[in-house]
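FW: tagging you since you asked about this chain on Friday. Here's the raw sequence from the shared folder, copied in full. Didn't touch anything.
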Amino acid sequence: MKQYVFTILFTAAITFGLSWGVWRLSLKYKLYPGIRERDVHKTPTPRLGGVAMFLGVTAAFLVSSQNPFFAIVWVDPIAVWAILGATLLIVLVGVADDLWDLDWMIKLGAQFLAAGIIAWFGQLQIYSLPIGGVAVVSSWVSFTLTVFSIVVVMNAVNFIDGLDGLVAGVCLIANVIFFAYSYLLVRDHGASTYFNLASFIAAVLIGACIGFLPLNWSPAKLFMGDSGALMLGLLMATSAIAITGILDPAIVGDNDEFGRSQLLGAFIPILLPVVIVLLPLLDFGLAVIRRMRAGKSPFSPDRKHLHHRMLDMGHSDRDAVLIFYAWTTIVSMSFLLMYIGTQYQWPGDYMLGVAFGVVGVAACLVVTLLPSRRAAAAPPSLQPTREAVA
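HL: got it, structure written out here
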């Protein structure tokens, strides 16, 4: 665990220093776009924070190659280089889009190419599903499923990037939960070492988000842009896929190995990696449906994302971000507690996680809906309007 803590602190320190440098250089050379109609901020702000995050992540990977504790991560160096190569590609495309606003088809093509690099050259694919030993029968099915999964998560994370500190904070919470899950899962599976690629990527992303947040917190001095959001989505999806290669699906589906509840023991290992990005996936799905029903491209920008709706309900920027944090924590922690309960045979098995989720969701609903009542009761001159927050 000490090595993981060192990785987090190292990545955070490097990312923070580089973020400050990128911010200063961006201001000096005016490397920032103008205000768009859908933007919430009112002053031009640099969007190249993803570059600093990428360099911090790369530095952590390179340092790990010299650390004997992470030798298992580098057993197959081609996989690591494929991950870094795909990440570099998506960051470069993201930077180009942040500066010159690329066509959505170019960005989508680059996303599929980056996902393909990880799946093909890195050989990180969804080979099996931990449900009673169900395996993906075709290599092409495995490859296709992996690529589409990575692309969906990338876009889901990118779609919620609309408020100061939103993506960095949500991804920080999600990766903390996933790190705890992957660490426990490998340990409970009887592995000879706790060090693995999935947990390492999660630790690196925790550090990158911690290092970036001080400059991204409201009022933000620096945005991560598409380069940072797409990178986070890419690496989060990769870490979730990497964990499937550690587990024997027949054992994961075994009632004795994964607790007294066979249903939860079989499904939680595949549900939790999805649950940690549930809000981004929900926002992404709603946006695609909404835009296609209107006859538009699913990637055409608009101002109807979940965080925009919270602002229209009367939340401040910071309150909306904190509510997103709360939802992410409640939902992901509930599933983590259910996994721990079934694995360690706590009294009631998964019921602690269910109770935590029910109470937490109720509290989040109250906090989420409360501002709309305050806004309705306010004088017309004080009620929030779309123009007031655009």
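FW: Residues 2-36+46-389 form one domain.
HL: agreed, and The chain has 15 helices and two strands.
FW: great, closing this out.
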